[in-house]
Amino acid sequence: MAVLVTGGAGYIGSHMVWALIDAGEEVVVLDRLSTGFRWAVAPEARFYEGDIADRALLSAIFAENRIDAIVHFAGSIIVPESVADPLSYYENNTVKSRALIAAAVEAKVPHFVFSSTAAVYGTPESAEPVTETAALRPESPYGTSKLMTEIMLRDTAAAHDFTYTALRYFNVAGADPRGRTGQSTAGATHLIKVASQAALGKRAGMDVYGTDYPTPDGTCVRDYIHVTDLADAHLKALQRMRAGGGSIVANCGYGRGFSVLEVLDQVKAVSGRDFPVNIAGRRPGDAVSIVANPAVAMREFGWTPKHDDLAFIVRTALDWEDHLGKRNML
Ligand SMILES: O=c1ccn([C@@H]2O[C@H](COP(=O)(O)OP(=O)(O)O[C@H]3O[C@H](CO)[C@H](O)[C@H](O)[C@H]3O)[C@@H](O)[C@H]2O)c(=O)[nH]1
């Protein structure tokens, strides 16, 4: 059987494709290449260029491949962009996911792994690591668009012979330790990516969005997870469903938070480079502090983090950024 990876030319998707291939799986990728890159897709995967809401293309993919699982990454991922242009986020993340889920049900594809997000929680009530049963109060259209898809999956699983896993990602960073892929998106806004670019002189400096938050140093706190550990969580979630496990929602993070300033110190230390940091105002849609309780993923699919070390995350991000620079890519 084969696994269909939507968004497999993107940052997390391209790592997932490698994780599946490393595990001996047959992989089919569907990506419209709006932000991803054809070269990011492992050559062993079968590639289709197109949209996840293109029913004719999906029918062809299901007819040409024996797919028993979909791992769905395709979507828009930038919190402030979603605040500025909410309807694009509801279109790309909710409406198009609905089309993909409908096609999966029609084709009787039994397993679905969905890339959800910690943004579904908004800012949790307490500073304790958040569990999956916490209140769902997204603070951005991005978070709401993903939550709506989770709800569609829940209701679809109740009505059809269909099992899903929704993985709520915390802050994904780093790159394949073997250097095969990394975060390559043009105009990326993610903290570790931006700081790596500043450290390597690809940008003159960077902004810190807000130092007046109610956190120890006044900057926002996040739980940074290495992208390879995240891909491994998907693989384990898939194996669990194939073994008969039911639908489930699970956090993907390490259970400890770092502030923006702590991350910047780490990037400076690991790279050995200093760079200008401008203290700017708060960015719309930012949650104050959010850290995962990953107990469900660890217990239910036996997920064990292997790279839960901020210095390693930063090292692999810097190595990938350097690799892109040496090849005049981005
Ligand atoms: O140049 C920058 C970039 C980011 N930040 C700050 O760094 C923190 C992390 O920001 P990111 O943009 O790296 O990530 P977000 O927490 O906004 O969002 C990420 O995590 C979310 C879940 O928490 C979603 O999954 C989302 O897709 C993903 O981008 C925030 O406080 C942000 O304000 C800066 O200060 N300067």
From TrEMBL:
Pathway: Carbohydrate metabolism; galactose metabolism. Its EC number is 5.1.3.2. The keyword Isomerase applies. GO terms for molecular function: UDP-glucose 4-epimerase activity. It holds the Pfam family Epimerase. Keywords: Carbohydrate metabolism, Isomerase, NAD. SUPFAM superfamilies: NAD(P)-binding Rossmann-fold domains. It catalyses: UDP-alpha-D-glucose = UDP-alpha-D-galactose. InterPro entries: Epimerase_deHydtase (IPR001509), NAD(P)-bd_dom_sf (IPR036291), UDP_G4E (IPR005886). Residues 3-253 form the NAD-dependent epimerase/dehydratase domain. Its cofactor is NAD(+). The keyword NAD applies. It is an enzyme of class 5 (isomerase). Transmembrane segments: none annotated. Homodimer. Belongs to the NAD(P)-dependent epimerase/dehydratase family. PANTHER family: UDP-ARABINOSE 4-EPIMERASE 1, UDP-GLUCOSE 4-EPIMERASE. This is UDP-glucose 4-epimerase. It comes from Shinella pollutisoli. The lineage of its organism: Bacteria, Pseudomonadati, Pseudomonadota, Alphaproteobacteria, Hyphomicrobiales. The gene is galE.
